[in-house]
Write a structure and sequence with these properties.
Two copies of one chain form a homodimer. The first copy, chain A, is α/β, with parallel strands linked by helices and 338 residues long. Chain A is built from 13 helices and eleven strands. Chain A folds into two domains: 157 residues, Isopropylmalate Dehydrogenase (3-Layer(aba) Sandwich), CATH 3.40.718; 159 residues, 3-Layer(aba) Sandwich (Isopropylmalate Dehydrogenase), CATH 3.40.718.
Amino acid sequence: MHLTVAIDCMGGDHGPHVTVPAALDYLRRTPEVNAILVGQQDAITAELRKLNADAEPHLGVQHASETVNMDEPPAAALRGKKDSSMRVAVNLVKDGTAHACVSAGNTGALMAISRFVLKTLPDIERPAICSVLPTLKGHTYVLDLGANVDCTAEHLLQFGVMGATLVSSVENKEQPSVGLLNIGQEDIKGNEMVKQAAELLHASGLNFYGNVEGDDIYQGTTDVVVCDGFVGNVLLKTSEGLARMLGTYLREEFNRNVLTRLSGVVALPVINAFKRRTDPRRYNGASLLGLRGIVVKSHGAADRFAFRVAIGRAVDEARGGVLNHISERMSVIQEGTA
Amino acid sequence: MHLTVAIDCMGGDHGPHVTVPAALDYLRRTPEVNAILVGQQDAITAELRKLNADAEPHLGVQHASETVNMDEPPAAALRGKKDSSMRVAVNLVKDGTAHACVSAGNTGALMAISRFVLKTLPDIERPAICSVLPTLKGHTYVLDLGANVDCTAEHLLQFGVMGATLVSSVENKEQPSVGLLNIGQEDIKGNEMVKQAAELLHASGLNFYGNVEGDDIYQGTTDVVVCDGFVGNVLLKTSEGLARMLGTYLREEFNRNVLTRLSGVVALPVINAFKRRTDPRRYNGASLLGLRGIVVKSHGAADRFAFRVAIGRAVDEARGGVLNHISERMSVIQEGTA
């Protein structure tokens, strides 16, 4: 079956200059997928013309007269801009025209619009933001990364189900392991909410590993790490900040004088291999999980390469049938507790 | 005035092999400080003899017959081992013999014993664990790192006061800036507790910067970052894990083949400079703040260099008079709200 992905071409820091070429790159590598480019028709067709892609097969353009700004309050975007490129892309998923959508726009607005238009899956109270992070063993899926700041134990259980289902749908892992992010000191092991969540996860039928600590994330201890959105957002941004600081330090040391600069030239292939391996663009694309439709959020600053990765993630989720799997798994759990 | 520091020589992964030489290193560089080495007399004097330091001036030994194990439940250590080296070191602070103490032992036990023996300062409900982290601009103090997992807004205010007072006492900064760790999305900015804490911090008379996000920590946006202990512990361990992963990646890339190994030899001075700059041993020593006595916790795996750094931190806090300053500041705030 040909899958169709709707692409909000106006979102992100760069808009159509990045999103349109990224979409073309993706389509040319993946001819069995159709794309609908959503946004200002003029801007999109101008980009397509520049790239000699006016008559690209598997490509459609859907005009949308408005654009959600990166700093626009979500409520304003939701109520005030019914014809935004973001809203139209999500609508295409809602009405079944597209199997998934991608946007590099404002996260809060995308979540608000997606929730309003698509609604949540049965038995899922809150959608969560799930990203992939690199680890020593490969990669791991972490959720929630900031959609929910006051979570209950039930929410964490639902995050566990959604994360595990995403991994099994997209990566063909039968029983992905799920870790619950906690802290390690003996007599104060976690707050009440996390303790309850551990009990629910134990009883869920998931491959629940138990508690993991912050360093287990990059260690790759489990396939999925579950935490509340406040903690997840802090750990993600802290990681970004630390990686940036270490990169700056390394650059500064290589730039210290003529000798160190020369050694930098000699070490360039190694440094480049290291950079490729830790390139965050390879992990671009956060899934808004728990909705009745697949929505992937690209980093706002994504370049052509990174945005293409996010498109791929959305298509992979549609191909893996992640939504049906989440619903099946949740209904089994609900029966178990009923 | 000669300051005296009590050193739990039995704590940590290495015990007296590391703690005794580290203490000697410190005393030889800082002749105006006295040290009391606490623990098994035989083990300590054997180490001193090895180091030709039997008759070291400014050095005393205080025998303690028991040792708290690294994995011992804090309650057991507190109730069952009244003559542990950890307990005796804290007692020396309590009775005024020492101005501060240092231990590389079990964090939970050290906190439980310190709280029981020393009690908290007036108007401080909970002690917090505060560490220094490197930043792009220098370093920042982060608390709480795991002592308290269910914090109220008032606790966060107290952490802010303690952190700011520590910085002004130890670093002679008049009005250190205090940031409140939060997450950045527009309509869900933080949970209720953090919102209330922001109001309290605004009204506190501290140099309150406002909300900071995870990446602000290593950016060095503020002198102090305040968060609850669950979040702080996760961000600290996540950072450790990420730094370890990146270090491993870099090493692997340099070890890939003969050519990359050769370039590693050429780049060695740069790599070593980078390692020195990011060496976590330079930041060893977490302060247990809010007690009626100065207690510093060294990393359990600390080596001689790292443990010496932790001793220095304890002495600097005693010299800066941090406890009196916290009490003064808290009583001003209490009067303001009364």
